[in-house]
Amino acid sequence: MKSIKVGLLGIGTVGAGTFNVLKRNQEEITRRAGRGIEIAMVADLNVERAKELTNGTCVVVNDANVVVNNPDIDIVIELIGGYGIAKELVLKAIANGKHVVTANKALLATHGNEIFKAAQEKGVMVAFEAAVAGGIPIIKALREGLTANRIQWIAGIINGTTNFILSEMRDKGLDFDTVLKEAQRLGYAEADPTFDIEGVDAAHKATIMSAIAFGMPVQFDKAHVEGITKLEAVDIRYAEQLGYRIKLLGITKRTAKGIELRVHPTLIPSKRLIANVEGAMNAVLVHGDAVGATLYYGKGAGAEPTASAVIADLVDITRLATADPEHRVPYLAFQPHAMSDTPILPMAEITTSYYLRMQVADQPGVLADVTRILADATISIDAMLQKEPAEGEIQTDIIMLTHQTQEKNVIAAIAKIEALATVVGNVTKIRMEELS
Q1: Contacts of 139 (CB under 8 A, 6+ apart)
Q2: Which pLDDT belongs to residue 220?
């Protein structure tokens, strides 16, 4: 049987990793796929570098349109990134009857519905294991391995840059800006780290997982997105004293009222496995009604870990290329005609617990005023930490952990607490998840 011909768009870090792993493990991959998988064309603006990386083993061009329009190419791998030209090329490849493999979470989180609809109409596959959590096969787990389950919730550390920063802040007691500079120096953070540190990258990934878990369209515009730029070292230290660690989590939950879809810093009990995921590693915790909690851990980025996921998609498509399109695994796990219109809840309606830190005057009656406001808002206190003021200081920190309540209750209570004459500045609010 003749080899599957692949066109690679972009041979940067992941593209080069894909080329090298496919070449190195060609025999093993062929035995698994049932036929050879060959990168026949590469498109990259830096033609000379691309030729050097491929060592004359395939055709190299500087125009990706040449690849997507070539009738001999069976599968197109899109590793360009972004929303613009990448979307145009993916839709053109689909229109030309080619299967697509992509690692582009931003593209799928914002334009996935259009792309999947086009692919369904054309009878081709779109595979995207590499778009979420790098080398961790979380998409396959959600779409296939857990298909018997009614997924209850997912919580994931799905951005290595922010996890590295938070790990360093906790281990070394440094502030955010200092650790960010170190992360950039070490190559864990981009020169412009906005998508990572503001939570956008994690939200793209959480959006995709949510759609697969609950069988609904991708809806990135309805996700709550909050990064780590406002986190202070003091809160990481207090959290530790209370038995918690702070992680940037992508969370999606099924509730009676709708679906929660949110990314934000979160206190997690330090005894949880996911709380102990350090450095640039990723981990995703999935809770299904039949299987309970399952944890997926590994490298969320890097040339070869991501290439592992790209090539797994190539093998899947190769195995199923001749199958009836109606009998392939659906893009978002559920059959297209059976997608849900369950609403995504506004943030004010979500229910969780909270960490509250406030700086108050060191005088009688302050704590009574604060607890009265919380009680009036039907917020009960689970634990409290009151620090002794430093010598010569007239203010001190009070830290409270609440039981579960609605976000709107907490927002209203904080406004009243901040209005007290004995409370200095703003109240720090961080959400908490038990993940039990």
Answers
A1: 128, 129, 131, 132, 208, 209, 212
A2: 98
Residue 23 has pLDDT above 80, yes or no: yes
Task: Name the strand (E) or helix (H) holding 407.
Answer: helix 407-418
Cα 187–51–185 angle (5° rounding)? 10
Q: What is the pLDDT of residues 27-82, one digit of tens each?
A: 999 999 999 999 999 999 999 999 999 999 999 999 999 999 999 999 999 999 99
* pTM, entire model: 0.96
Inter-residue contact 29 to 35 (CB < 8 Å): no
At residue 102, the 3 state secondary structure works out as strand
Q: How far apart, in whole angstroms, are the C-alpha atoms of residue 272 and residue 274?
A: 5
Q: Is 92 a catalytic residue?
A: no
Question: Which CATH code is given to the segment(s) 351-432?
Answer: 3.30.70.260
What 8-state DSSP symbol labels residue 421?
T
With tokens 């929660």, the residue in question is 260
Spatial CA neighbour of 201 closest among 139, 263, 277: 263
Strands 281-288, 75-78: pairing is unpaired
Where along the chain do its domains lie? 4-133+303-338, 138-299, 351-432
pLDDT given at position 319: 93
- pLDDT of 363 above 90: no
Compute, in degrees rounded to 10, the torsion defined by CA atoms 283, 288, 291, 295: 0
Fold exhibited by the domain 138-299 = Dihydrodipicolinate Reductase; domain 2 (3.30.360)
Asked whether the predicted pLDDT for residue 358 surpasses 90, the reply is yes
Kindly list the distances between the CA atom of residue 46 and the CA atoms of 54, 65, 190, in Å, as whole numbers in the listed order: 12, 15, 21
Q: Which CATH number fits domain 4-133+303-338: 3.40.50.80, 3.40.50.720, 3.30.499.10, 3.60.15.10?
A: 3.40.50.720
Residue 278 to residues 1, 11, 125, 160, 353: CA-CA distances in angstroms? 46, 29, 35, 9, 24
CA distance 360 to 425: 9
CA distance 270 to 45: 47
Q: Which residues touch 4 (CB under 8 Å, ≥6 apart)?
A: 33, 35, 36, 37, 38, 74, 75, 314, 317, 318, 321
Report the helix count and the strand count for the chain, using DSSP H and E: 15, 17
Give residue-wise pLDDT tens across range 371-425.
Answer: 999 999 999 999 999 888 777 778 899 999 999 999 999 999 999 999 999 999 9
Name the catalytic one among 5, 205, 247, 299.
205
